Structures are given as C-alpha cells and as structure tokens.
C-alpha cells in the first residue's frame, strides 16, 4: 500500500505528500502523476514531539504530537547494555521534508521519547517519503556488526518523471545518528517501489522484500533482493506475482519462526469483490526461496471464517510455560466476517496461531482499539506488534485520525 495515496478510476491522485503503495490500489494501476500537494495539510511545519493530551479516537497513549505514519517497533537484542530497549519509528514531516522519527522506551513501554531522526535528502523538499521499516541486524553481514540498525523507506514518489528508490540508512549508536548505506532497489521508470522489509536468510544474506510496480506485466508484485555486505544487492526475483495482471500483492512482513521456517504476511489487492486486499501468508525454508510466485498463498482465518483485510503485520511470541512453536500474532486493518461484512471486532482484534500458521486462528483483544476503521491510509494501518520476552504481554502501535491529522497511539495488553 502507498502511504497517503489513493487510487481513483481516472488516475492516481495523492491526498498528501507521502504515499503508501497498494492499500487503496483497489483499481488497476495507472500512470503516475505528480502530486498537487507537497505536504500533509494538517502536518505542522515545526514539530513539537512532546505528546499532548488530545481528545482521542483510538485508545492508547499518543506516541508523539502531530503526524505519525506507518509505525514500526523493535526490541534491541544485539546491542550489549542497550539490550531490552524498545525503538519505534514513524514517518512524519518537517515542513515539506519527509522525516523518519526514531523513539525510544527504556521503562517497559510506559513512555517513549524521540531520540533520533533520519532526514534523507532524497525525501526532502516535497520529493516524497513512504512506508519505512526498522531492523536490528542479528548477525554480522559483511562489515556490518550485529546490532547495527537499519532504516529504509520508499523515496521520491512525488518527483516529476520520478525514479523511486528503496534507500537504506544505518545507525551504530542505537538510533541517535544515521548515515546512508545503499539502495536495495532503484526503479528504471516511473513505476513505484514500496514497503521495504528486512530479514536475514539462512545463509546469512540480508534480504530486502518489497512491493514493485515497475513490471508492465503486473500491476504490482512482491520481489526480494539480497546482499552479503549490505551495500551490493543481487538476485532480484519475484516472490508473489499473480498470473492475473490486476492483482496487487503488497506490504510484506517476514519473521523467522523457532523451527527455522520463514513466515511472510502480505495483502493482495485487486479491482474489486469481497476479497480485495485480503491478507495472505506463505512460508520459506531458507528465507530466500518462497516457491512458485504464481501461488498466491493462504488466507488465515478463524474457525467461523473471519479474516483480515489490508495492511497486515505479524510478530512471534513465546508460549509462557513452554511450547516449542510459540505463537504467531497477526493483525490487519479491518476484520471481516465470512460473507465480507465488517466483523464486530474490527479495529480491536489480533489473530493468533500456535501451529506455525496451520489450521484455524484464534481472535484475542488488541491492545489499541481503533473504532470501526475504514479503508484509508491511516486507521489501523500496518499496526506493528511487539510481544514481551516472556510472551505474556504485547505492545501495539496503531494510527488513527485526530481531526485531519493521522497520529500514532501505543498500548499494551495481555496475551492469553
């Protein structure tokens, strides 16, 4: 999905300076047009990052004042004395400059404060910034030490005759300062590149998964590339690419399970019908080979047929007291009933599975409630989950509108 980008029947018209590819890509892709706006009309030109106490729509505590889009959250595990700290990132604005804001919690998720910023010159002056990710290297990759932080985004979507890139930045001081590292993909035309996601494959390669609009044979597809040094990228190949051109796989999120299996969630948007933007998953034994790209994967659902539509994320949690497989946690923008109508728990539900994704999934309460989310770039859009180390609690960061501003809220809840 594209942050702050809406698809219309007559073309692609952005509401805001950013875009998140695919969410509202419910119609076939059309040629990109320059954005008429360079900033979110509601975004402040000077950011005060001390949270205030607004009249909330979503439950939870504001992560920051002002705009906070496409949140991501990690717990440090390879940074020595900093291990256990939680870092959260969002896309925000400083005037018409796209910014990756990095926040830190050192008190078990009770509070967050901004500790760093990624200010990419390729996302400044209204060029566009979208759908960033945050990752801690679990092992050495080339000269990059374990614990190196990586932040990546889609840059340049609002330029004239654009050539988008998935640009990667690194930090060696727990997110305080950042420097440009490389790009895992650069468009050869005006098509979009969206939603980068990192993992480390079984052979030690750093893998960049992303949504790709540059292939004329596919409205959008999922692609992966790998690097053995974090700088040089190779092996770009399709992961999910439908035989029906209008299908739009997007928004990949990957986690490695305790049994060594790699689990990927994603959405598949298309021109219409009950299953537009429905969440799917597939697995890989090595984190690089995912099988036939034309195989669209499996739709996770509960025993009574409820399933998620759009913007999924996943997390893995240990099972308190044992259980080798632990649990997979899945969340999506809207929860639908078997017949495609909105379910009663939409905007307030997490699905769990203790069989590595097989069989029926179980619904539990989400920590943050986003009442009755609609299909848009903000409400409950790509909400990350972070379970506690013992698997008894989970942190969620979700976004919702406060007036015209899309804000991020966080809260914790119990895992049954």
Automatic annotation (TrEMBL):
Coiled-coil regions listed in the entry: none
Biased composition (Low complexity): 36-57
SUPFAM superfamilies found in the cross-reference section: Arabinanase/levansucrase/invertase (SSF75005)
Keyword Nucleotidyltransferase: no
Domain of life per record: Bacteria
Organism the protein comes from: Streptomyces lanatus
Alphabetical UniProt keywords: Signal
Higher taxonomy: Bacteria, Bacillati, Actinomycetota, Actinomycetes, Kitasatosporales
Protein name, entry field: Exo-alpha-sialidase
Signal peptide: 1-32
Region of interest: Disordered: 36-64
